[in-house]
Design a protein that fits this description.
The complex is a heterodimer of chains A (144) and B (257).
Chain A lengths: L1 H4 L3 H27 L5 H16 L4 H12 L6 H5 L5 H6 L3 H24 L4 H4 L15
Chain B lengths: L2 H4 L14 H12 L1 H21 L8 H15 L4 H21 L1 H6 L1 H6 L1 H25 L4 H7 L6 H10 L4 H26 L4 H23 L1 H29 L1
Helix pairs in contact in B: 3-4, 3-5, 8-9, 8-12, 8-13, 9-11, 10-11, 10-13, 11-12, 12-13
The chains are: A mainly alpha (144), B mainly alpha (257).
Chain lengths: 144, 257
């Protein structure tokens, strides 16, 4: 009951952070319309927010809390669009296995090539070892 | 007034008797409101996530795959069409854009490290993107897929909105491109862990970046659930591939199609 009337600062912060994310999403949509580009609004919003955070050299805890909350369940946001596959099940069945094999092998190939190249091209593999598996999900206020 | 217009509208789903008339009416009402689509989306995700966590995040227990299968089964059983479902699900769908903006935060946290590794990352990105396009188009051609399918397959490793726009531009179908993009994401999330274990890539950065480049957001969601560092690199791979794809793929299509 007390928690209801006096919410911990975190809860208030999350809404503030969400508002900031929505502002950047709107900015992204606006810029995309303006330049008539192929880049979708949210991707543009991500670029603008990244530029803002890097220039400011600081991530406000409210933004971090909101973003980490959304990203912890990133998978759910793809479900409504993915259910749309049901409209094309018969089309895909009649199209044979070509598309499925093409997707399977090209995706496996892209994963393997990207990962192996990055492994080989990284000149100094020690720089990976120097940054151990620290959880990045704790809010970090400074970009030092 | 003829007798036909006086008869009550057909409200009951097939097989229901009038004995549970009230229940059926409540169902008809609820299933037509946005509440239905929204509720089954969240419920399916919660159940799928429980399965995912219980199996210790086994790649085959992919939450998107399980939730989508459950929802399609429910919609089929209840004779609900996708349009009605989406009236409720659109609220979740909308937040996909907000979550995309939120990907800036893990990137900002890694900014200094990313800047130092920019060139290796870009080389890996170009190679991965090229592999995705050429292998997909090559196999589809080899198996005599119709040109519409080939053109819709070409941008499938880029995030869905960009893939759809590119497909339309190069003579493919935007809706098919969206379907192929979703399939790519799910297949990528299913195979990435065993594949990279087999290849001996143990570094979270390389693993995450690869799945982000090859399987965009659904792959990134998998990376996030495994390790935050993999997730951050996956979002970088997805974002960079989105930018590269939007700029380059229309020209690549002219060369290979």
């Amino acid at each position: 009951m007390i928690a209801f009337f006096y919410p911990p600062l975190h809860d208030v912060d999350m809404i503030r952070g969400l508002a900031i994310l929505l502002i950047f999403q709107s900015l992204g949509e606006g810029v995309t319309r303006f330049i008539h580009g192929l880049i979708p609004g949210p991707v543009m919003g991500m670029i603008l927010l990244l530029a803002f955070l890097v220039l400011r050299k600081k991530i406000a805890p409210s933004i971090a809390v909101a973003a980490d909350g959304l990203l912890a369940h990133l998978a759910i946001f793809f479900i409504p669009a993915a259910v749309g596959v049901m409209l094309y099940i018969t089309t895909l069945k009649s199209a044979g296995a070509a598309w499925l094999l093409a997707i399977l092998f090209s995706t496996a190939g892209a994963i393997a090539v990207t990962a192996l190249l990055l492994k080989w091209v990284t000149k100094n593999p020690d720089d990976i070892a120097q940054t151990p598996d620290q959880p990045a999900d704790q809010p970090i206020d400074s970009l030092s | 007034m003829n007798a036909d217009s006086m008869s009550p509208p057909q409200l009951l789903p097939v097989g229901m008797t009038t004995g549970i008339n009230n229940l059926a009416e409540i169902w008809v009402y609820l299933s037509a409101t946005p509440l239905f689509g929204l509720t089954i989306t969240l419920l399916a995700y919660v159940l799928a996530d429980i399965v995912y966590q219980r199996t210790n995040r086994h790649p085959l227990a992919n939450p998107v795959l399980i939730a989508v299968a459950m929802i399609i089964a429910v919609l089929t059983l209840t004779h609900t069409d996708y349009k009605t479902y989406f009236q409720g699900a659109q609220f979740v769908h909308f937040l996909l854009g907000t979550a995309t903006v939120a990907l800036a935060i893990p990137l900002a946290r890694l900014w200094n490290e990313l800047r130092a590794r920019a060139i290796p990352l870009l080389i890996a990105l170009f190679a991965g993107a090229a592999t995705s396009v050429f292998v997909a188009v090559g196999i589809a051609r080899l198996l005599d897929a119709p040109p519409l399918i080939v053109a819709s397959l070409l941008p499938k490793s880029v995030t869905a909105p960009i893939a759809m726009a590119i497909a339309e531009q190069i003579g493919g179908s935007p809706t098919l491109a969206a379907v192929f993009t979703v399939c790519t994401g799910i297949i990528g999330a299913l195979i990435v862990t065993p594949l990279l274990n087999l290849l001996g890539v143990r570094d979270w950065a390389a693993r995450g970046f690869a799945i982000g480049v090859a399987a965009h957001g659904i792959g990134t969601a998998r990376a996030y659930s495994v390790h935050p560092r993999a997730g951050a690199y996956a979002s970088l791979g997805m974002g960079l591939h989105a930018l590269l794809g939007a700029m380059v793929l229309p020209w690549v299509a002219k060369l290979v199609l």
